[in-house]
Each structure stands twice: as structure tokens, then as C-alpha cells.
Amino acid sequence: MCGIVGYVGGQQGLNIAVEALRRMEYRGYDSSGVAVVDGAGSINIVKRAGKLANLEDKIAEVGAESLAGSTAIGHTRWATHGRPTDQNAHPHLSFDGKAAIVHNGIIENFAPLREQLIKDGVELKSETDSEVAAHLLAQAYNEGETAGDFRASALKVLGGLEGAFTLLFTHADHPGTVIAARRSTPLIVGIGEGEMFLGSDVAAFIEHTKQAVELGQDSVVIITADDFEILNFDGTPGEGKEFTIDWDLAAAEKGGYDSFMMKEIHEQPDAVRDTLVGHFIDGRIVLDEANISEAELKAVNKVFVVACGSAYHSGLLAKYAIEHWVRIPVEIEVASEFRYRDPVLDANTLVVAVSQSGETADTLEAVRHAKTQGAKVLAVCNTNGSQIPRESDAVLYTHAGPEIGVASTKAFLAQVAANYIVGLALAQAKGTKYPDEIREIWTALEEIPAKIAEVLSCEEQVTEIARTLGAIKTMLFLGRGVGFPVALEGALKLKELAYIHAEGFAAGELKHGPIALIEDDLPVVVVVPSPRGVKVLHSKIVSNIQEIRARGAKTIVIAEEGDDAVEPFANWLIRIPKSSTIMQPLLATVPLQYLSAEIARQCGNDDIDKPRNLAKSVTVE
Ligand code: F6R
């Protein structure tokens, strides 16, 4: 999830682009860069690894006057393909120095395109999937039917790309024009007076104009200082929706939400969708970013998942999925305990280290311990180039984008999705699932982002429930099967955000002690498994709900649509769409995120992005 900006107008493009990048920095800060078209047939680029401040230092070093011009594109990177280095930073320049591009997203077919370019004698300078677009644009512009035609060349390049992308093209022969395109990633046009803007979101240009245009899927837009034209990928006229931005600058940075956490909750459909992109090709699960062979996966006879906090809960779900799909034992261990317990590992053990930040010291030490024991380590990580993936044998990146709220939301759901990809890859390699069964599970996974989007609409209902609950001292969360990790995650969110005592239990365990905690009006969340899944689990949890209701608890029940059996026992009933058993946690977690955020506010903790005593990345053991 990178940030992109573009400008054509009467001001210095460099200043506008750098300012816009500052507003986009929340989208990624592995590197940044700008390209300015100077009007005399040149494009000048400056780019730097690290935060925007590094770019500003570099600009000061080379002198802003060397970057004069009123057409500019800029990029702030959240690294996916390739480490966060100067070379991999955007913009990327074509082999002839005439075309420059910035890109957000993933070009899935970059490997064959890269290969062809190399055959054509083009020297690629970065490890990114993006750079190919710059060279392809130059090739199209320099030769063949599209020679000399910027628009036709850009359309030709776009026609050959697969994946999800926002791309901005500039060409030295065409100062005063930027051509942009979007497929499944965001791009907004800002309409100024005698100037036009492009941004990943409106925060990029809100200080200059409040008039904007939203572009449909697979749209191309050509901006000049006075005009914009929307096309479809085939060059026919396209459509956009003009709107007036009614946010102020602070709201714009959070996408109109009052906190990054709320924004990130709403980004969850994209986080899961982007994590799935490129991992099921021609009917096969592909771990393309995971440097681990099919033969090595086939030899795995035991899996260990090591992680902390929410990432640990995602690992618990991996255990349910992998044991069910692959029929090999999966142990899940809190990372801080792992190496002190002398776990039994060997060369056929796959250790999956799950970490959003990739820097968590406990998880990192667990990785190091696993490696000394000869196990293979696969990192599931959201932060490209961080320590845990660097020290692992292989890595599968989640594509949740930067998570700024300290409490994990979108990264957690992306971890669950990525863990399921690992499970499917193992099932495929070991032959424990037929290809058609894998396809069926994948289809169910692909349906999840749209279903998460449906669940997001429960916000109002959940907020109302939290308000009705008023001041509470404690809260319990119950689940069975895959609902148990969801209960643990719900309790963790409430503890960290509202500073209230909360505990998650396997519902069947209640009668062995915790039921003594139930008293009049105690709120208890119950995550109900699908009645279409393991039948006995559903009826057992219905009994558990009755047991706690009989002792005075108030129940907040999360159940799938059409599950009427639970209705009589719910003080509040939150509906989620139907899904298969293993997929349900990706939906059932969402209402609990809203619930904890609103209870936190009820308790007077308004800054839910920064709960007390916590840090986003825990680099001490
Ligand atoms: C909870 C939360 C933490 C993290 C944990 C691991 O909302 O955010 O429990 O999940 O500190 O962090 P990573 O995934 O960065 O290793």
C-alpha cells in the first residue's frame, strides 16, 4: 500500500509533490521519491530509502533548482517486491531516460515481462515489479505503431499488465501531461484552477482543492493543467464521479475516520484481498515470495507457529486449518516461551513465525532458536525488509499496508489469510487435498473480503450495544472451535483499548471453573459456530449460552445469518454472513474490534490509536 501523487499546473511541481508525499507518508515510509518534467525534454529524479526526511535532505544536497518544472509525480513506498533501498525506490526511469513511472500495487506478471526486457537488452536497475512499466513505456513510445504517441503507448503498456496497480506515467517529450491508471488500487483526481492533482487519496491535495473525481475500476486519466480526460483501458471514453470533499486536513489523513484504528478496521476487506493476490495461479497455490520448494514443503511432518499477542491468535487459527487440511500436527507457542522450553524440532519441522512488524524481539529469538535446531523457518510478515523475514528461510508477506493504530486489526485478519495460504500450500504439496478441494477453499477465501465489507455495516449496532452496556468492570468472551481464538482476540482488544479486565475462554471450559465469575448483568460475548459446520459444536454452545444466562449474564451473541436457534438466548444478536467453518473468524472478529473501540471511548480513552503502556513494535524480550 504505497502513496502516489501527481501534479500538472503553474507552481513548482517539486514543492507540491513533496508536500503531498508528507500527507501520504502514513501509507508507507520505506522510501520516497519524485520525478519532475522540466519542459526542456528532461526528467529529473530524486529518490531515497527511508522516511521522507531523507528525501528532503537529498533534495537540499542536489539543490531544488535542479528539479524545476511544473509537472511532477511522487511516491512513498511500502515495500513489497524488493528491499527498501535507494535503487528500489520510485520513481523508476526508463532505459532511455525519457519515461518515469510510479506504481502502487503488484504487477503479477512482472517476471515474464522482466525476462523479455532482459532479452531485449534492457538493463533493470531495481528488484521491483514496478520498474518494468517504465521500460515498457519507453519501448512502446520509441517503436512500432504507438511510436511518438504518449497516450497510445501508455494504453499499450496497461493492456499487458496483470494484477492490481495504480500507475502514473510521465514522458520527457510531454511536459504538462501525466497519464494515470488504476485497477483495484486507489486513485483520485483533484481539480484545481489551472492545475490538476492526482493522489492515492484526497489528503494528497486537499489544501489546494476540494473538488475531486473518483475513478472507476480499470480507468485511465490524462491530466493537463486545465483539463482531465477519463478513458477505459481500451481507449474508449470512461467515467468518473465528481464530488466535493467535506473533510478538513486532519480528517483527510485518517480518511475521514476519527482514528487510524477505525480507518484500519474499514481497510480490512482490502488487507485480506491484497494478501491473497498472486497466490492462486492456474489452479495452484503459489508461495512466490516464499523461497521454499515444493519438495521441502512435502517433507514437512510437523508445524510450529510462534508469535505474540494478536499474531499468536492468528497462529491458533492456523492450527485449526492446517491440522484439518494437512493432517500433520501443529503446535502453537507464545514466542517468548518457545526457546526456553526446549521444543522438539528437526529438519522436517516448519516453524511459521507470524509478526506484523517483523521486529518483535520474542518472535525473532524464537526464529533464531528454531534455526539453530535445524528447522525451516517461514515468516508471515507485514513489513518488508524487517528483521524476522531477513533471518527466516522464507517469507510470505501480508499486504495489509502500514498499521498505525497500536491495536492490531487489519494486520490480524491479513495474518489469518496468509496462514491459510501456508496451510493450502502444505495441503497441495503433501497431496492431502485434491486440486478441486483446494480450489473450493480458495474460492471461499476470495469471497471473504466482500463479506468483511458486509460485516463492517454492523458498526452502528455494535456502538449502540457498547453505549447501552455503559460502565463495565469486566467482560468475558466465549467460543468453540475456531471461535475460541476469536474470543481470545476479542478479550485482548478490550484489555488493551479500554483497560478493562477481559478474558476469553473455550466455552466448554467454563464449567471447569470460570463459570463462578458469572453474576448478574455480566456482559458475555459468545461467538457461535455455524450450525452447518460441526453440528455438535453448535448445539453445545447453545447450551453454554443457556447456562450463563441462567446465572444472570447478559449475552452479546455473534452468529451467522439464518441461525435462529440462538435468538431466544441473546440479549443482543450480531449477524455475520454465512461462511465455511474455517473462514468464520475472518468475519466474527470484526464486531469485536468495534465493540472494544467503543467501550474504550465509553471509558474515557479517546485516543484508541495509542493505548497506554503499549508500543507498536516490541523490540525487547
Ligand atoms: C494486539 C497487538 C499485539 C501484537 C504483538 C505482536 O492488538 O497488536 O498483541 O499482535 O505485539 O506484534 P507483531 O505482530 O508485530 O510481532
Plain-language structure description:
By secondary structure, the chain is an alpha/beta fold. It has three domains: 3-252, 4-Layer Sandwich (Glutamine Phosphoribosylpyrophosphate, subunit 1, domain 1); 260-433, Rossmann fold (3-Layer(aba) Sandwich), CATH 3.40.50.10490; 457-602, Rossmann fold. The chain is built from 19 helices and 26 strands. An eight-stranded antiparallel β-sheet has the order 3-2-4-1-10-9-11-14, with helices on one face. It has a six-stranded antiparallel β-sheet with strand order 5-6-7-8-12-13. Strand 12 and strand 13 form a beta hairpin. Helix 10 (309-326) runs parallel beside helix 14 (410-430), helix 10 (309-326) packs antiparallel against helix 17 (483-498) and helix 14 packs antiparallel against helix 15 (435-455). The protein is globular and about 80 Å long. The mean pLDDT is 93. Residues 293-432, 465-610 form the SIS domain.
Q: Gist?
A:
This protein folds into three domains: 3-252, Aminohydrolase, N-terminal nucleophile (Ntn) domain (Glutamine Phosphoribosylpyrophosphate, subunit 1, domain 1), CATH 3.60.20.10; 260-433, Glucose-6-phosphate isomerase like protein, domain 1 (Rossmann fold); 457-602, 3-Layer(aba) Sandwich (Rossmann fold), CATH 3.40.50.
The CATH class of the largest domain is identified as: Alpha Beta
Count of domains: 3
CATH superfamily of the largest domain: Aminohydrolase, N-terminal nucleophile (Ntn) domain
Using the 3D structure, state the CATH architecture of the largest domain.
Answer: 4-Layer Sandwich
CATH topology of the largest domain: Glutamine Phosphoribosylpyrophosphate, subunit 1, domain 1
| Rough outline | globular
Instruction: State the distance separating the first and last CA atoms.
Output: 30 Å
Mean pLDDT: 93
Helix content: 25-40%
Which range does the strand content fall in? 15-25%
Q: What oligomeric arrangement do these chains adopt?
A: single chain
Low-confidence stretches: none
| Major sheet description | 8 strands, antiparallel
- Per DSSP, the total helix count is 19
Count all strands and give the number.
26
Structural class: alpha/beta
Round the Cα radius of gyration to an integer and report it. 25 Å
Strand order of the largest sheet: 3-2-4-1-10-9-11-14
